[in-house]
Design brief:
heterodimer, A: 30% helix, B: 12 helices, 9 strands
Chain lengths: 431, 325
């Protein structure tokens, strides 16, 4: 079915791929961007085209979120592809990568195919699977990386379980290189991290919570970077959080190691003090860090050392969160809050808009080789129209996500998604 | 010996209404409230020493002891405290084998809440459990120990013991020795002793100290002898035996050699030093029997007696608030 072409006129167009931030208009036809004009309107527009006036609203490429968990398959009451897709659309996320630590794990090509087919059926946002790096994400034996890569898995990860065995990790990097497959690893020393639910320090000590020293991240990252250098493989450093680790990353990148780092929006917005009253919505993995680490992370994002920002969307139902802090499930939902939470750095004057938007659009898309993340002729018409300054009060109960564990609950953010298009289809319109 | 009605008059005079519904942490106390609780507890000591130990302050009230972790002395201390104040007391020790501990905590709390108790005493292995429970129920919650966080009535009874032994807590130098890392007793005592004007030292092997302990406003020592120099009070902490098998310290005998309290090491403290222990003791591990059983030095039996009085004070002050609610 073909719909009438659509023209969005008079927007503030931000396209990080080309570095443009200024007045802009686009024409969308047949699911792709047919025309882009850096000006308030498009002269000589055909009368067959439906024209809408954006009235200066922000027009950006749809967000690409590299780290999303749902409960599908195996824990559907937490979140399904469908509910995650609705949440994503409402948050301006048009491409999401689901994590493979499901039940069963996405560790063979049939599971990759399952995710892609299910995602196609719901007709929501684009959903791609990451494949397990090792079978069942157990860190012992390599999963079928080549077959999954060919089936459409966009990168490989054991998600939250660190691969402690350096020999396994080395072979993984070496083997993945054969297929130009990207391996992601969240750096955490498994022994130092075992049993910890907070970052070690004065606060965790007073609260009687078992803490992991921040250096546990740097220890594992140094190993990962050394092995990436040894093997020549490309590494995605998943959710870097500490100043020490950032310094290690900068050193390795200066030596030419092919590493790209992501930061979660939670670690950019919150610090360890937020767990103060044992608030389990702030129990995250990795745990929230010291304010100095958070500031270093923001600086690393501004300098480009950290290139990608993820929501780290991790649905956990009330029964997994209404527990004593150490027993509560880690993680927070974030698809619907990623964009406004990130825009805060623009409103606070910390970063130019185009750089912020790049970290959630063209940077992750380019890393995975996806066609999305840019506003250019021929690119998929994945677009978000957003009121940059409009306040949004986050009410967890009104989130589209099936799980309501948002650390932003009750907070007011700035930046409201008005319309989200995926392949030119309207998947969300603000009420 | 005071006359019976004098004691009851004294209790009535010192009874006050606690400013909050729950009693969850020593760190959350104000100095006037802490002093008022100690004054009231002191009056209850007199009551507990006469043959007729009952008063009717909590008559008609229901007190539930909800202990997810086994405890002999704290649970019986709260039970006696409740009974001597005239409350109906019920002991519950939910089994946690079939469900996760957390589910049991909230589910049990909601079930109990529906039975409309007035006072809920809770002990749980997870830090923050009492606070979580307090948010879910409509009665008063008293923290009887939550993981490695706080055990505020222990700190109160320790302060009461010290006040009676020394006249005042302010100005004392108190050394807390042993497994500070896992100890809720240590955290509550640091908070309350500092509130009352004592200076606090922590003495422990570095593997048994929390990372941020130096930020607590205490002096930190790793050597017991130098740490004990000039102290008025030594509070020993219990060290669980499984933590001495190479995990945190190499062995029991090595621990006793360096951090166990015996007469020789105690001689480094100020003359007249008193020794405390929250119990139960590992004799020959953290404390030598000669020290623990010396009535001129040890306050350990006194602590147990003060436990009942301190808990009566907390129960009475919380229920006085209920009356005004």
């Amino acid at each position: 079915m073909t719909t009438r072409p659509l023209a969005i006129l008079g927007a503030r167009l931000v396209d990080p791929a080309s570095g443009y931030d200024g007045p802009g208009s686009v024409v969308v036809a047949e699911g792709v961007i047919a025309e882009v004009r850096r000006g308030p309107d498009i002269p000589g527009l055909s009368p067959d085209i439906t024209a809408v006036d954006a009235a200066g609203a922000l027009l950006i490429p749809g967000l690409v979120d590299l780290r999303v968990k749902t409960g599908e398959p195996g824990a559907e009451p937490k979140e399904t592809f469908k509910s995650a897709s609705r949440a994503a659309a409402a948050g301006g996320v048009t491409t999401l990568v689901v994590q493979p630590d499901t039940n069963p794990a996405i560790d063979d090509p049939a599971m990759v195919d399952f995710v892609l087919r299910r995602a196609r059926d719901i007709e929501g946002v684009h959903v791609y699977p990451a494949g397990a790096a090792t079978r069942k994400c157990e860190g012992a034996r390599m999963a079928e990386i080549g077959l999954m890569h060919d089936a459409g898995a966009v990168y490989f990860t054991d998600v939250d379980t660190p691969i402690g065995d350096s020999r396994v990790f080395r072979r993984l990097l070496t083997y993945a290189r054969t297929f130009n497959a990207l391996v992601a690893h969240r750096p955490a020393d498994p022994h130092l991290t075992a049993g910890a639910c907070a970052t070690e320090g004065a606060l965790a000590g007073r609260l009687g919570l078992s803490g992991v020293p921040a250096v546990a991240e740097r220890i594992m990252l140094e190993r990962d970077l050394a092995l990436a250098e040894l093997t020549g493989a490309q590494l995605l450093v998943d959710q870097i959080t500490t100043q020490d680790a950032l310094e290690a990353l900068a050193r390795a990148k200066a030596r030419g190691v092919k590493a790209t780092a992501s930061a979660s929006i939670n670690h950019l917005r919150f610090n360890e003090v937020d767990i103060g009253d044992y608030r389990t919505f702030y129990r995250l993995d990795p745990p929230l860090r010291a304010e100095a680490d958070r500031q270093a992370l923001i600086e690393a994002l501004a300098s480009g050392l950290v290139e990608v920002v993820v929501s780290a969307h991790t649905p956990a139902p009330a029964e997994d969160k209404r527990l004593p802090f150490s027993e509560a499930a880690p993680g927070a939902v974030g698809l619907e809050t990623l964009l406004p939470a990130l825009l805060a750095f623009y409103h606070e004057g910390r970063m130019p808009l185009v750089d912020l938007i790049r970290a959630v659009t063209s940077a992750p898309a380019d890393l995975l080789g996806l066609p999305a993340g840019k506003i250019a002729r021929g690119a998929p018409a994945d677009l978000v129209l957003c009121d940059l300054n409009a306040p949004v009060r986050i009410d967890a109960d009104r989130l589209f996500s099936k799980s309501k564990n948002s650390p932003f609950d009750g907070r007011t953010l700035q930046g409201r998604v008005r319309v989200t298009l995926v392949d030119g289809r309207e998947v969300y319109r603000a009420p | 010996m005071e006359r019976a009605d004098d004691i009851e008059a004294l209790i009535a005079e010192r009874l006050f209404s606690f400013p909050t519904r729950h009693f969850l942490s020593a760190a959350g106390l104000s100095r006037p409230d802490a002093e008022s609780l100690l004054d009231l507890a002191d009056a209850f000591v007199g009551l507990n020493r006469r043959p007729e130990k009952k008063v009717g302050l909590l008559r008609g009230r229901t007190l539930v002891n909800l202990f997810f972790e086994a405890s002999t002395r704290t649970q019986s201390s709260f039970e006696l405290a409740g009974k001597r104040l005239g409350a109906d007391t019920v002991n519950m020790s939910p089994r946690t084998s079939s469900m996760t501990k957390g589910e049991t905590l909230i589910d049990t709390a909601m079930t109990l809440n529906a039975m409309r108790p007035d006072l809920l005493i809770v002990r749980h292995s997870a830090s923050g459990a009492a606070e979580l429970l307090a948010r879910k129920v409509s009665c008063s919650v008293i923290n009887a120990g939550d993981g490695g966080h706080e055990h505020p009535t222990q700190a109160l009874l320790d302060a009461l013991t010290l006040r009676r032994a020394f006249g005042s807590v302010g100005g004392l130098t108190v050394a807390i020795c042993g497994d500070v890392l896992h100890s809720r007793v240590a955290r509550s005592n640091v908070a309350l002793l500092q509130l009352l004007g004592a200076s606090v030292r922590l003495i422990a092997p570095p593997t048994l100290l929390p990372a941020g302990a130096r930020d607590w406003g205490v002096e930190v020592f790793h050597d017991l002898r130098s740490g004990l120099g000039g102290v008025d009070v030594v509070m020993m902490l219990r060290l669980q035996l499984e933590r001495m098998d190479g995990a945190f310290v190499p062995s029991m005998r090595e621990y006793f050699r360096y951090w166990g309290l015996d007469q020789e090491k105690l001689a480094f403290a100020r003359p007249g030093v008193r020794v405390m222990h929250p119990g139960p003791m590992n004799r020959g591990v953290e404390i030598d029997s000669v020290v623990a059983d010396d009535p001129a030095v040890s306050l350990i039996q006194e602590q147990v007696e003060m436990g009942v009085a301190a808990r009566m004070a907390v129960l009475a002050a919380l229920s006085a608030r209920l009356d005004n609610a």
